[in-house]
Amino acid sequence: MPEKDKKVTPPAPSEPIRGVKASVETDSMIERRNTEPATPPVRERRKYKVSETPPPPAPPPKLNDYASIIGQPEIDEIRYIARLLRGKTVKMVNSTAVGGGVAEILNRLIPLMQELEVQTKWEVITGGNDFFEVTKGFHNALHGGDYHPTKEIFDIFLMYNEQNRQRMEFVEDIFVIHDPQPAALIRSKERNRGKWIWRCHIDLSNPHREVWNFLKPFIEQYDATIFSSPAFTRQLSVPQYLFYPSIDPLSEKNKDLDESYVQKVCDDFGIDRSRPVITQISRFDRLKDPVGVIQAYKLAKKYVDCQLVLAGGGASDDPEGAVVLAEVMNEAGDDPDVIILNLPPWSALEINALQRASTIVIQKSLKEGFGLTVTEALWKRKTVIAGAVGGIPTQVIHKLTGVLVHSVEGCAYQIRYLLTHPDFAAQLGRHGHEHSKENFLLTSNVKRWLILYQQMLGLNKPVKVT
Ligand code: UDP
Prior knowledge:
The chain has 16 helices and twelve strands. It has helices spanning about 25-35, 65-70, 70-80, 100-115, 130-140, 150-165, 210-220, 260-270, 290-300, 320-330, 350-355, 370-380, 390-395, 410-420, 420-440, 440-455; strands spanning about 90-95, 120-125, 175-180, 195-200, 225, 240, 275-280, 305-310, 340, 360-365, 385, 405. The longest helix is centred in the last third of the chain and has 18 residues, at about 420-440.
């Protein structure tokens, strides 16, 4: 952290807004919200422009392009570590090519691995709606939600995994299987010579017992597992590694933008930059608590002027998005200062601009694996208010790199406090940037993967000193 940023600042008080009863969101409230089937009627809202076709993909950056951010010695080190792995082959498998943090990471990681001549292939498992209903149920259950699995549910999971296993070839040196959806592909292990790694991106600290007991025998067949936080690990008979997820500072989502482009995006979406802008970018998922964000905004708005932007989209492995979007629209009512954007998957530049145009970025998740949206905001020096769940506290160190909240009222309080203490808010943003640069950039992630691959393939033997 730069010395100049270390000045003493008043701490953000932690009582709720005056006149609002302090209440912590209880498990039963969360559960109710997570299980209620209601699909409220969707109200008409202001129209906004989105690009209807994906722009041509930008060429991926080269490793040397990162030298201006992390320094040439770091780049040289990565190349040095990769040299032993030249020609080795890796297959990564997940459950969606677009939407969500895993797809975001793989899109950026794989071109760099290719440049380093570690031949990395990315495959996506396929399945019917029934499969993705089941895996979404598993996802919520593994995050501690209520769930009633049946034999039929487990059979659907196994059937689609088996179909994908038959369809895919497993000839690489290393297989990296992301998250629970494709976890049963491990059944192919006995037929090949490769090493198998299970990369878990979700918070397993309090998993649904039956679902976890069903998955665990598969996970224990892997040669190694990777988690995003020490708190997410389970008792397992196989080695466990800690990898932070990462963002690419040179991607469309995170690269520096011209101010004129940021302004254009705000104009297209009807955002008034002369007033504070509070933003949450997330899939429309109850665990991201978009409805709670609107409630917090409404409470804060009694004291401070602001607009709320809720921008999200769907992921192909998430069937609940439309229902949650309808709930969000309903909660927003006809408040013109709540701007709800359902964005297509090719909106990285627009999301980048929205984050940059924000006075505060919120990620009020009730459960979270890591929360790449938080990393993206920290990188952009934004003041972040985020739920104290999952991997978020690794990123948001309370009152140093952002603030953590536990309730709607706490979130409202912090919106009000930070909008009225801009110097402190800006300092959180500066520290957040340093923290993200130090810990959560793609280049550190590449290095970790390379070292793990070396270890798995028995290539990093100790050097003999003669
Ligand atoms: N994201 C996006 N479009 C959206 C919503 C989210 O591109 O409409 C991106 C977001 O910028 C971030 C990722 O998807 O890079 C979400 O990752 P995160 O870890 O925050 O949550 P997940 O969706 O994986 O639970």
